[in-house]
Amino acid sequence: MWKLLFLFSTIPIVASLAARWWFGLRVLTQYGGRPCKCDLARWNPPAAEGEVIQREEQSAYEFGRQLRLKALEEWKEVDPKGAASRASSKRFGMAVPPLSAIVATMAVVVAKIPLFGAVSCALAATSLAAVLGILSLAPELAAINRLVRKFRESRCFPRSDDEEAAIRCATAHAWKESLPPVIAMFQR
Q: pTM of the full predicted structure?
């Protein structure tokens, strides 16, 4: 039974790591270093964030991060329940894997389950957090796409290549942040 739980828990974790790399880290590596120029009069950085872009020229990585943060702020205003649900799934991913590992360790100490069973239980909780992180990603990507439409109309970036790089980086940041930190630390 523990081997089966271990196997079925490993598959979603490996798949989510592959998706995070393909849609997130790979794109950030490819487009993130690109220097981009933006019209600051049209660029409206997020008010809640302490960091405000002061320079017209930044990397696509930074413009993408700011674009994602602005989309999240706008999403909180438009659909507070959806944004809260996404935040809850991220908190779940931060809390449940470490807590399940602690509980599994305690179960091993009192000799209720074998060591392999504890590892399987902790892995199952981590797998569940990874699946919830990926499944709750679609509304965040939709919020980014809504803001991207507005940005394309306002023509914040004089060059379309800069705009495309910033948009790709914004989406890649969402994929990068989708997994629980326990899993994400394996991909740096």
A: 0.85
DSSP 79-143: -HHHHHHHHHHHHHHHHHHHHHHHHHHHHHHTTSS-HHHHHHHHHHHHHHHHHHHHHTHHHHHHH
Spatial separation of the C-alpha atoms in residues 137 and 144, rounded to whole Å: 11
Count CB neighbours of 149 within 10 A: 9
Mind listing the pLDDT tens digit of every residue in the chain (188 residues)? 889 999 999 999 999 999 999 999 999 999 999 998 888 777 765 444 555 556 678 899 999 999 999 999 999 999 999 999 999 999 999 999 999 999 999 999 998 889 999 999 999 999 999 999 999 999 999 999 999 998 888 888 888 898 999 999 999 999 999 999 888 887 76
Tokens for 25?
């880290």
Q: Do 63 and 38 meet the contact criterion of CB atoms below 8 Å apart?
A: yes
SS3 call for 57: strand
Structure tokens at 102: 């602690």
Residue 57 has φ and ψ, to the nearest 5°, of -110, 120
